[in-house]
Protein backbone atom coordinates (compact mmCIF):
# COMPACT_ATOMS: atom_id res chain seq x y z
CA UNK A 1 0.00 0.00 0.00
CA UNK A 2 1.44 3.34 -1.05
CA UNK A 3 -0.21 5.36 1.72
CA UNK A 4 1.83 6.51 4.69
CA UNK A 5 -1.28 7.38 6.72
CA UNK A 6 -4.95 6.44 6.88
CA UNK A 7 -6.72 9.77 7.30
CA UNK A 8 -9.66 9.71 4.90
CA UNK A 9 -11.41 7.21 2.64
CA UNK A 10 -10.95 9.75 -0.14
CA UNK A 11 -7.20 9.11 0.05
CA UNK A 12 -7.75 5.49 -0.98
CA UNK A 13 -7.79 4.16 -4.50
CA UNK A 14 -10.08 1.26 -5.42
CA UNK A 15 -7.25 -1.29 -5.28
CA UNK A 16 -6.06 0.01 -1.91
CA UNK A 17 -9.53 -0.27 -0.40
CA UNK A 18 -9.78 -3.87 -1.60
CA UNK A 19 -6.29 -4.63 -0.28
CA UNK A 20 -7.34 -3.41 3.16
CA UNK A 21 -10.49 -5.53 3.09
CA UNK A 22 -8.68 -8.62 1.80
CA UNK A 23 -5.98 -8.21 4.45
CA UNK A 24 -8.69 -7.83 7.10
CA UNK A 25 -10.15 -11.17 5.99
CA UNK A 26 -6.72 -12.75 6.41
CA UNK A 27 -6.45 -11.25 9.87
CA UNK A 28 -9.93 -12.50 10.76
CA UNK A 29 -8.90 -16.03 9.77
CA UNK A 30 -6.10 -15.94 12.36
CA UNK A 31 -8.52 -14.99 15.12
CA UNK A 32 -10.25 -18.36 15.07
CA UNK A 33 -7.07 -20.00 16.34
CA UNK A 34 -6.51 -20.85 19.99
CA UNK A 35 -3.57 -18.43 20.08
CA UNK A 36 -4.73 -15.25 18.39
CA UNK A 37 -1.51 -13.26 18.75
CA UNK A 38 0.80 -12.74 15.77
CA UNK A 39 4.46 -11.64 16.06
CA UNK A 40 4.16 -9.17 13.17
CA UNK A 41 4.66 -5.88 15.06
CA UNK A 42 6.82 -7.17 17.90
CA UNK A 43 8.97 -4.30 19.18
CA UNK A 44 6.76 -1.59 17.71
CA UNK A 45 4.86 0.94 19.82
CA UNK A 46 1.39 2.21 18.90
CA UNK A 47 -0.04 5.23 20.72
CA UNK A 48 -3.81 5.63 21.06
CA UNK A 49 -4.19 9.41 21.25
CA UNK A 50 -7.81 10.08 22.16
CA UNK A 51 -8.96 13.66 22.66
CA UNK A 52 -12.59 12.54 22.47
CA UNK A 53 -14.40 9.88 24.50
CA UNK A 54 -14.66 6.44 22.93
CA UNK A 55 -15.10 2.87 24.05
CA UNK A 56 -15.48 0.64 20.98
CA UNK A 57 -12.93 2.36 18.77
CA UNK A 58 -10.23 2.73 21.42
CA UNK A 59 -10.59 -0.85 22.67
CA UNK A 60 -10.69 -2.14 19.10
CA UNK A 61 -7.47 -0.39 18.13
CA UNK A 62 -5.84 -1.55 21.37
CA UNK A 63 -6.88 -5.16 20.75
CA UNK A 64 -5.70 -4.96 17.13
CA UNK A 65 -2.26 -3.65 18.07
CA UNK A 66 -1.78 -6.17 20.87
CA UNK A 67 -2.83 -9.09 18.67
CA UNK A 68 -0.05 -8.02 16.31
CA UNK A 69 2.32 -8.05 19.34
CA UNK A 70 2.83 -4.28 19.41
CA UNK A 71 3.21 -2.36 22.65
CA UNK A 72 0.31 0.04 23.25
CA UNK A 73 0.26 3.36 25.05
CA UNK A 74 -3.21 4.74 25.75
CA UNK A 75 -3.31 8.52 26.00
CA UNK A 76 -6.46 10.32 27.13
CA UNK A 77 -6.76 14.10 26.98
CA UNK A 78 -8.58 14.13 30.30
CA UNK A 79 -6.11 14.31 33.15
CA UNK A 80 -3.18 14.85 30.77
CA UNK A 81 -1.10 17.87 29.88
CA UNK A 82 -3.66 18.66 27.19
CA UNK A 83 -6.14 19.56 29.90
CA UNK A 84 -3.48 21.98 31.16
CA UNK A 85 -3.25 23.71 27.81
CA UNK A 86 -0.64 21.68 25.90
CA UNK A 87 -0.99 22.12 22.15
CA UNK A 88 -1.42 19.36 19.57
CA UNK A 89 2.03 20.26 18.26
CA UNK A 90 3.72 19.77 21.63
CA UNK A 91 1.89 16.48 22.13
CA UNK A 92 3.13 15.31 18.72
CA UNK A 93 6.72 16.28 19.54
CA UNK A 94 6.45 14.36 22.81
CA UNK A 95 5.25 11.21 21.02
CA UNK A 96 8.11 11.45 18.52
CA UNK A 97 10.61 11.83 21.34
CA UNK A 98 9.15 8.82 23.16
CA UNK A 99 9.93 6.58 20.19
CA UNK A 100 6.39 5.81 19.07
CA UNK A 101 6.03 4.01 15.75
CA UNK A 102 2.43 4.95 14.91
CA UNK A 103 -0.30 7.18 16.29
CA UNK A 104 -4.03 6.47 16.34
CA UNK A 105 -5.84 9.75 16.90
CA UNK A 106 -9.43 10.64 17.70
CA UNK A 107 -10.32 14.31 17.95
CA UNK A 108 -13.44 16.45 18.14
CA UNK A 109 -12.11 18.89 15.53
CA UNK A 110 -12.45 18.06 11.84
CA UNK A 111 -9.03 18.03 10.19
CA UNK A 112 -7.05 17.30 13.36
CA UNK A 113 -5.76 13.95 12.08
CA UNK A 114 -4.63 15.51 8.79
CA UNK A 115 -2.89 18.30 10.69
CA UNK A 116 -1.08 15.82 12.92
CA UNK A 117 0.05 13.78 9.91
CA UNK A 118 1.16 16.59 7.61
CA UNK A 119 2.25 19.54 9.75
CA UNK A 120 5.84 18.28 9.93
CA UNK A 121 5.81 17.89 13.72
CA UNK A 122 6.59 14.18 13.60
CA UNK A 123 7.48 11.47 11.13
CA UNK A 124 5.03 8.74 12.12
CA UNK A 125 2.10 6.99 10.42
CA UNK A 126 -1.21 8.44 11.60
CA UNK A 127 -4.48 6.49 11.66
CA UNK A 128 -7.62 8.56 11.95
CA UNK A 129 -9.99 7.11 14.56
CA UNK A 130 -12.55 9.85 13.92
CA UNK A 131 -12.12 13.61 13.55
CA UNK A 132 -15.09 15.84 14.27
CA UNK A 133 -17.80 15.39 11.65
CA UNK A 134 -15.24 14.71 8.92
CA UNK A 135 -14.05 11.10 8.54
CA UNK A 136 -13.89 7.74 10.31
CA UNK A 137 -12.14 5.51 7.74
CA UNK A 138 -11.75 2.31 9.75
CA UNK A 139 -15.46 2.39 10.66
CA UNK A 140 -16.34 2.54 6.97
CA UNK A 141 -13.92 -0.29 6.24
CA UNK A 142 -15.40 -2.55 8.92
CA UNK A 143 -18.89 -1.72 7.63
CA UNK A 144 -17.79 -2.61 4.09
CA UNK A 145 -16.21 -5.84 5.34
CA UNK A 146 -19.46 -6.80 7.08
CA UNK A 147 -21.63 -5.92 4.09
CA UNK A 148 -19.30 -7.70 1.67
CA UNK A 149 -19.53 -10.90 3.67
CA UNK A 150 -23.32 -10.91 3.69
CA UNK A 151 -23.88 -9.55 0.19
CA UNK A 152 -21.46 -11.92 -1.53
CA UNK A 153 -21.90 -14.99 0.65
CA UNK A 154 -23.54 -16.25 3.81
CA UNK A 155 -20.83 -16.48 6.50
CA UNK A 156 -22.99 -18.80 8.60
CA UNK A 157 -22.91 -21.45 5.84
CA UNK A 158 -19.71 -23.51 6.21
CA UNK A 159 -20.14 -25.00 2.74
CA UNK A 160 -19.77 -21.64 1.00
CA UNK A 161 -16.28 -20.84 -0.24
CA UNK A 162 -14.51 -17.86 1.35
CA UNK A 163 -14.62 -14.53 -0.43
CA UNK A 164 -12.31 -14.31 -3.42
CA UNK A 165 -9.65 -11.61 -3.06
CA UNK A 166 -10.68 -8.43 -4.85
CA UNK A 167 -14.41 -8.92 -4.31
CA UNK A 168 -16.18 -5.57 -4.39
CA UNK A 169 -19.74 -4.39 -3.67
CA UNK A 170 -20.96 -3.75 -7.18
CA UNK A 171 -24.76 -3.77 -7.24
CA UNK A 172 -25.33 -3.64 -3.48
CA UNK A 173 -28.07 -1.26 -2.33
CA UNK A 174 -27.47 0.45 1.01
CA UNK A 175 -29.81 2.82 2.85
CA UNK A 176 -28.19 5.01 5.53
CA UNK A 177 -30.66 6.72 7.85
CA UNK A 178 -30.56 9.43 10.48
CA UNK A 179 -28.24 12.14 11.72
CA UNK A 180 -26.13 12.60 8.60
CA UNK A 181 -25.26 16.19 9.53
CA UNK A 182 -23.08 15.20 12.50
CA UNK A 183 -21.97 11.81 11.18
CA UNK A 184 -18.41 11.15 10.06
CA UNK A 185 -19.57 7.54 9.65
CA UNK A 186 -22.08 8.54 6.95
CA UNK A 187 -19.48 10.56 5.05
CA UNK A 188 -16.89 7.79 5.15
CA UNK A 189 -19.39 5.11 4.16
CA UNK A 190 -20.72 7.05 1.19
CA UNK A 191 -17.15 7.50 -0.03
CA UNK A 192 -16.11 3.86 0.44
CA UNK A 193 -19.27 2.00 -0.52
CA UNK A 194 -19.67 3.95 -3.75
CA UNK A 195 -15.95 3.48 -4.50
CA UNK A 196 -16.59 -0.26 -4.26
CA UNK A 197 -19.61 -0.11 -6.57
CA UNK A 198 -22.55 0.06 -4.15
CA UNK A 199 -25.56 2.35 -4.56
CA UNK A 200 -26.14 4.44 -1.42
CA UNK A 201 -29.25 6.36 -0.41
CA UNK A 202 -29.15 8.78 2.51
CA UNK A 203 -32.40 9.27 4.43
CA UNK A 204 -32.84 12.16 6.87
CA UNK A 205 -34.94 15.23 7.59
CA UNK A 206 -33.62 18.37 5.85
CA UNK A 207 -32.36 19.71 9.20
CA UNK A 208 -30.02 16.74 9.58
CA UNK A 209 -28.39 16.96 6.15
CA UNK A 210 -25.20 19.00 5.67
CA UNK A 211 -24.78 21.85 3.22
CA UNK A 212 -23.51 20.49 -0.08
CA UNK A 213 -24.84 16.95 0.42
CA UNK A 214 -26.35 17.11 -3.07
CA UNK A 215 -22.79 16.88 -4.39
CA UNK A 216 -22.09 13.58 -2.61
CA UNK A 217 -22.00 10.39 -4.67
CA UNK A 218 -25.37 9.14 -3.42
CA UNK A 219 -29.12 9.69 -3.58
CA UNK A 220 -31.01 11.76 -1.02
CA UNK A 221 -34.43 10.75 0.28
CA UNK A 222 -36.60 12.35 2.97
CA UNK A 223 -39.16 9.53 3.20
CA UNK A 224 -37.80 6.48 5.01
CA UNK A 225 -40.60 4.19 3.83
CA UNK A 226 -40.03 5.18 0.21
CA UNK A 227 -36.34 4.32 0.57
CA UNK A 228 -37.18 0.92 2.05
CA UNK A 229 -39.41 0.20 -0.97
CA UNK A 230 -36.24 -0.03 -3.10
CA UNK A 231 -35.51 -3.42 -1.44
CA UNK A 232 -32.07 -2.60 0.07
CA UNK A 233 -29.44 -5.19 0.92
CA UNK A 234 -28.53 -3.29 4.08
CA UNK A 235 -30.08 -0.62 6.27
CA UNK A 236 -27.63 1.34 8.40
CA UNK A 237 -29.11 3.35 11.25
CA UNK A 238 -27.02 6.27 12.45
CA UNK A 239 -26.81 7.33 16.07
CA UNK A 240 -28.65 10.54 16.87
CA UNK A 241 -25.77 12.62 18.23
CA UNK A 242 -27.63 14.56 20.86
CA UNK A 243 -24.43 15.86 22.44
CA UNK A 244 -23.49 17.69 19.24
CA UNK A 245 -27.05 18.91 18.82
CA UNK A 246 -27.09 20.34 22.34
CA UNK A 247 -23.80 22.14 21.68
CA UNK A 248 -25.36 23.67 18.57
CA UNK A 249 -28.47 24.80 20.42
CA UNK A 250 -30.80 21.92 19.51
CA UNK A 251 -33.92 22.27 17.39
CA UNK A 252 -33.01 19.67 14.76
CA UNK A 253 -36.32 17.77 15.13
CA UNK A 254 -39.53 18.43 17.12
CA UNK A 255 -39.28 15.57 19.63
CA UNK A 256 -37.72 12.13 20.07
CA UNK A 257 -41.13 10.52 19.53
CA UNK A 258 -41.70 12.29 16.24
CA UNK A 259 -38.19 11.47 15.07
CA UNK A 260 -38.72 7.77 15.82
CA UNK A 261 -42.04 7.79 14.00
CA UNK A 262 -40.57 9.32 10.85
CA UNK A 263 -36.99 8.01 10.83
CA UNK A 264 -36.71 5.17 13.32
CA UNK A 265 -36.37 1.53 12.34
CA UNK A 266 -39.44 0.52 14.35
CA UNK A 267 -40.98 -2.95 14.42
CA UNK A 268 -43.35 -2.21 11.54
CA UNK A 269 -40.56 -1.11 9.21
CA UNK A 270 -38.29 -3.92 10.35
CA UNK A 271 -40.93 -6.54 9.59
CA UNK A 272 -41.34 -5.41 5.96
CA UNK A 273 -37.62 -5.69 5.18
CA UNK A 274 -36.44 -8.39 2.83
CA UNK A 275 -35.39 -11.39 4.99
CA UNK A 276 -31.88 -11.14 3.52
CA UNK A 277 -31.50 -7.43 4.33
CA UNK A 278 -29.05 -6.87 7.17
CA UNK A 279 -29.43 -4.20 9.87
CA UNK A 280 -26.31 -2.20 10.72
CA UNK A 281 -25.44 0.42 13.32
CA UNK A 282 -22.06 1.99 14.17
CA UNK A 283 -22.96 2.12 17.88
CA UNK A 284 -23.64 3.03 20.51
CA UNK A 285 -27.36 2.57 19.84
CA UNK A 286 -30.16 4.75 21.17
CA UNK A 287 -32.78 2.03 21.49
CA UNK A 288 -36.27 3.35 21.00
CA UNK A 289 -35.02 6.41 19.13
CA UNK A 290 -33.27 5.40 15.90
CA UNK A 291 -33.85 1.66 16.28
CA UNK A 292 -36.25 -0.65 18.10
CA UNK A 293 -35.08 -3.39 20.44
CA UNK A 294 -36.58 -6.02 18.13
CA UNK A 295 -34.51 -4.81 15.18
CA UNK A 296 -31.35 -4.35 17.25
CA UNK A 297 -31.53 -7.84 18.74
CA UNK A 298 -32.75 -9.74 15.68
CA UNK A 299 -30.79 -12.37 13.77
CA UNK A 300 -30.51 -9.92 10.89
CA UNK A 301 -28.73 -7.39 13.08
CA UNK A 302 -24.97 -7.51 12.45
CA UNK A 303 -24.00 -4.91 15.06
CA UNK A 304 -21.91 -7.36 17.10
CA UNK A 305 -20.32 -8.70 13.93
CA UNK A 306 -19.35 -5.14 13.00
CA UNK A 307 -17.48 -4.81 16.30
CA UNK A 308 -15.63 -8.08 15.67
CA UNK A 309 -14.74 -7.08 12.13
CA UNK A 310 -13.45 -3.77 13.47
CA UNK A 311 -10.55 -5.54 15.19
CA UNK A 312 -9.63 -7.32 11.95
CA UNK A 313 -9.81 -4.11 9.90
CA UNK A 314 -7.62 -2.24 12.37
CA UNK A 315 -5.15 -5.11 12.45
CA UNK A 316 -5.00 -4.85 8.65
CA UNK A 317 -4.46 -1.09 8.71
CA UNK A 318 -1.68 -1.31 11.29
CA UNK A 319 -0.05 -4.18 9.41
CA UNK A 320 -0.10 -2.42 6.05
CA UNK A 321 1.22 0.85 7.50
CA UNK A 322 3.90 -0.62 9.76
CA UNK A 323 4.89 -4.10 8.67
CA UNK A 324 4.94 -4.01 4.86
CA UNK A 325 7.90 -3.02 2.74
CA UNK A 326 8.11 0.70 2.17
CA UNK A 327 6.09 1.58 5.23
CA UNK A 328 8.55 0.81 8.00
CA UNK A 329 10.27 3.42 10.10
CA UNK A 330 13.45 1.44 10.70
TrEMBL record:
<dbReference type="InterPro" id="IPR036901">
    <property type="entry name" value="Asp/Orn_carbamoylTrfase_sf"/>
</dbReference>
<protein>
    <recommendedName>
        <fullName>Aspartate carbamoyltransferase</fullName>
        <ecNumber>2.1.3.2</ecNumber>
    </recommendedName>
</protein>
<feature type="binding site">
    <location>
        <position position="284"/>
    </location>
    <ligand>
        <name>carbamoyl phosphate</name>
    </ligand>
</feature>
<comment type="function">
    <text>Catalyzes the condensation of carbamoyl phosphate and aspartate to form carbamoyl aspartate and inorganic phosphate, the committed step in the de novo pyrimidine nucleotide biosynthesis pathway.</text>
</comment>
<feature type="binding site">
    <location>
        <position position="57"/>
    </location>
    <ligand>
        <name>carbamoyl phosphate</name>
    </ligand>
</feature>
<keyword id="KW-0808">Transferase</keyword>
<dbReference type="GO" id="GO:0044205">
    <property type="term" value="P:'de novo' UMP biosynthetic process"/>
</dbReference>
<dbReference type="InterPro" id="IPR006130">
    <property type="entry name" value="Asp/Orn_carbamoylTrfase"/>
</dbReference>
<keyword id="KW-0665">Pyrimidine biosynthesis</keyword>
<feature type="binding site">
    <location>
        <position position="184"/>
    </location>
    <ligand>
        <name>L-aspartate</name>
    </ligand>
</feature>
<dbReference type="GO" id="GO:0006520">
    <property type="term" value="P:amino acid metabolic process"/>
</dbReference>
<dbReference type="GO" id="GO:0016597">
    <property type="term" value="F:amino acid binding"/>
</dbReference>
<dbReference type="GO" id="GO:0004070">
    <property type="term" value="F:aspartate carbamoyltransferase activity"/>
</dbReference>
<dbReference type="GO" id="GO:0006207">
    <property type="term" value="P:'de novo' pyrimidine nucleobase biosynthetic process"/>
</dbReference>
<feature type="binding site">
    <location>
        <position position="84"/>
    </location>
    <ligand>
        <name>L-aspartate</name>
    </ligand>
</feature>
<comment type="subunit">
    <text>Heterododecamer (2C3:3R2) of six catalytic PyrB chains organized as two trimers (C3), and six regulatory PyrI chains organized as three dimers (R2).</text>
</comment>
<dbReference type="InterPro" id="IPR006131">
    <property type="entry name" value="Asp_carbamoyltransf_Asp/Orn-bd"/>
</dbReference>
<feature type="binding site">
    <location>
        <position position="139"/>
    </location>
    <ligand>
        <name>carbamoyl phosphate</name>
    </ligand>
</feature>
<feature type="domain" description="Aspartate/ornithine carbamoyltransferase Asp/Orn-binding">
    <location>
        <begin position="170"/>
        <end position="321"/>
    </location>
</feature>
<feature type="binding site">
    <location>
        <position position="239"/>
    </location>
    <ligand>
        <name>L-aspartate</name>
    </ligand>
</feature>
<feature type="binding site">
    <location>
        <position position="56"/>
    </location>
    <ligand>
        <name>carbamoyl phosphate</name>
    </ligand>
</feature>
<dbReference type="Pfam" id="PF02729">
    <property type="entry name" value="OTCace_N"/>
</dbReference>
<dbReference type="Pfam" id="PF00185">
    <property type="entry name" value="OTCace"/>
</dbReference>
<feature type="binding site">
    <location>
        <position position="136"/>
    </location>
    <ligand>
        <name>carbamoyl phosphate</name>
    </ligand>
</feature>
<dbReference type="GO" id="GO:0005829">
    <property type="term" value="C:cytosol"/>
</dbReference>
<comment type="pathway">
    <text>Pyrimidine metabolism; UMP biosynthesis via de novo pathway; (S)-dihydroorotate from bicarbonate: step 2/3.</text>
</comment>
<dbReference type="InterPro" id="IPR002082">
    <property type="entry name" value="Asp_carbamoyltransf"/>
</dbReference>
<feature type="binding site">
    <location>
        <position position="106"/>
    </location>
    <ligand>
        <name>carbamoyl phosphate</name>
    </ligand>
</feature>
<feature type="binding site">
    <location>
        <position position="283"/>
    </location>
    <ligand>
        <name>carbamoyl phosphate</name>
    </ligand>
</feature>
<comment type="similarity">
    <text>Belongs to the aspartate/ornithine carbamoyltransferase superfamily. ATCase family.</text>
</comment>
<feature type="domain" description="Aspartate/ornithine carbamoyltransferase carbamoyl-P binding">
    <location>
        <begin position="5"/>
        <end position="148"/>
    </location>
</feature>
<dbReference type="InterPro" id="IPR006132">
    <property type="entry name" value="Asp/Orn_carbamoyltranf_P-bd"/>
</dbReference>
Amino acid sequence: MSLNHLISIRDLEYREALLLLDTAEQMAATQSRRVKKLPTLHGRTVVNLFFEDSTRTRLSFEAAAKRLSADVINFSAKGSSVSKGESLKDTALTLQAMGADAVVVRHSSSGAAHRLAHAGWMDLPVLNAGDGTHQHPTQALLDAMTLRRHYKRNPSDPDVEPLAPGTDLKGARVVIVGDVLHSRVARSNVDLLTLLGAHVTLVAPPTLLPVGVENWTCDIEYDFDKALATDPDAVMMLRVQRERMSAAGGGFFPSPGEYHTAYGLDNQRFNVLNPECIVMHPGPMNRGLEISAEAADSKRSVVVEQVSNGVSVRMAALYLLLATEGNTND
